[in-house]
Design goal:
Strand order of the largest sheet: 1-5-3-4-2
Structural class: mainly alpha
Largest sheet: 5 strands, antiparallel
Radius of gyration: 59 Å
CATH architecture of one domain: Orthogonal Bundle
Oligomer: single chain
Strand content: 5-15%
Shape: rod-shaped
CATH class of one domain: Mainly Alpha
Order of helices and strands: EEHEEHEHHHHHH
Helix content: over 70%
């Protein structure tokens, strides 16, 4: 029988590919298959590669067809042996035996003819045809039993191969699903880390800009203060110099000589006046000198503070640049990593989808194998009716074969 190419063709038999000059035909392939006792079906294509692809599988019409693109394009077909009365393609040995036993009803006709031949004395052995028929039936039943055993072994093998393939594919799906879930977790964590790094880098840049503004304001204020302190020191220095020149040098030289004053008995009004002026000048100069010292200290402190602040700002700015460069590199790496993870997840998703389709195909194949290999037992009513018919037929045949009563 000819049908579309089946999804599961079975195993190759010895000499399974028979090349021909030109494309193989169904008749040529059928002839080659008939010469090989292990060949129960074969595939032949109208296009593409030439040859007969002989298989050991017993194919039925209900099996799913192959959806392979190559099979459709090359117009491949499957030929299989049609089930007959003694074929095991759709029945087990027990079922065949039950079918054979139903023919026992015809034995009584042969027995009646043999009895008549015996009564008339025609023929040496009136049971030759009966014996020949029984021998032929036994031969066919034995062949059917052997074929049934072969079929059961084939079914067991096919089920084992199917179960192994299904278990492997399901294990692959579970393994890839676990890896994909891990990749999804990595992608989520990497996305969070990237967002945190971006936020931190923005905060660092904002802090650097803020620190730059503060540092600029502080520097301007410090420079202005130092300018004030320098101006004040310049003025105070000039005042101290002028006061020293006026009160201590000129006044002492022109109006008051301590050595001469010691020789005098009493001090006049002029000497007392100049002495008081000199003492007043010393007080003013001392105050000015204290002011100079204070402003000098303020100037030094301001310079030191400005230098420390500038050094701290430069160190902070350089560290911030290093941090920004690090965050930028990390963000770029995490972006590439997220792209890789997304690609892996997409690839794994496609693989899982493909493997899941294969698992469904294997499940459908198991159902098809079970339909061929598992035979549903008859009901009790069917068995009872068939048994009663067989008993009646056998009793009738036994009565006809019994010797006549005298």
């Amino acid at each position: 029988m000819e049908r579309s190419l089946v999804a599961f063709e079975g195993n190759d038999v010895a000499g399974s590919i028979m090349p021909f000059q030109g494309l193989a035909t169904m008749a040529k392939c059928k002839h080659e298959c008939s010469k090989n006792p292990k060949c129960h079906s074969f595939a032949v294509c109208s296009k593409g590669r030439s040859g007969c692809f002989m298989k050991d599988k017993v194919v039925t019409e209900t099996e799913p067809a192959s959806a392979a693109k190559e099979a459709v394009e090359n117009q491949c077909k499957t030929w299989y042996e049609a089930a007959d009365l003694f074929s095991d393609s759709s029945s087990s040995f027990i079922q065949i035996s039950m079918q054979k036993a139903s023919h026992a009803m015809d034995l009584h006709q042969l027995a009646m003819k043999a009895h008549r031949l015996k009564q008339t004395g025609k023929g040496v052995d009136p049971f030759v045809k009966v014996k020949t028929l029984i021998k032929g039936m036994l031969k066919k039943l034995n062949a059917a039993q052997a074929a049934s055993k072969t079929k059961m072994a084939k079914c067991k093998h096919d089920n084992a191969v199917n179960a192994k393939s299904m278990a492997e594919k399901k294990a692959d799906v579970a393994r890839i699903t676990g890896r994909m879930n891990n990749r999804k977790s990595d992608l989520t964590e990497t996305n969070k880390s990237s967002a945190t790094a971006k936020t931190t880098m923005i905060d660092v840049k904002h802090a650097v800009a803020l620190a730059k503004g503060i540092r600029t304001t502080e520097s301007l204020q410090a420079n202005a203060n130092m300018l004030k302190y320098k101006t004040a020191l310049k003025g105070l220095g000039a005042a101290v110099k002028a006061m020293n020149g006026f009160y201590r040098k000129k006044a002492a030289k022109k109006h008051w000589n301590p050595r001469k004053e010691k020789k005098k008995v009493g001090l006049g009004s002029g000497s007392t006046k100049f002495k008081a002026r000199a003492q007043a000048g010393d007080g003013i100069i001392s105050i000015l000198e204290i002011a100079v010292a204070d402003f000098s200290k303020l100037l030094d402190d301001t310079k030191s503070t400005e230098k420390t602040s500038q050094d701290d700002y430069v160190a902070m700015f350089r560290q911030s640049e290093i941090n920004i460069a690090t965050y930028t590199k990390d963000i770029s790496y995490m972006k590439n990593r997220m792209t890789e993870l997304s690609d892996e997840i997409a690839e794994m998703t496609a693989t899982i989808l493909s493997d899941s389709k294969i698992v469904k195909s294997l499940e459908a194949m198991k159902v098809a194998i079970d339909k061929i290999c598992i035979i549903q037992p008859p009901t009790y009513a069917e068995k009872k009716a068939k048994r009663e018919a067989e008993l009646a037929s056998l009793k009738e045949a036994l009565g006809l074969l019994a010797p006549p009563k005298v």
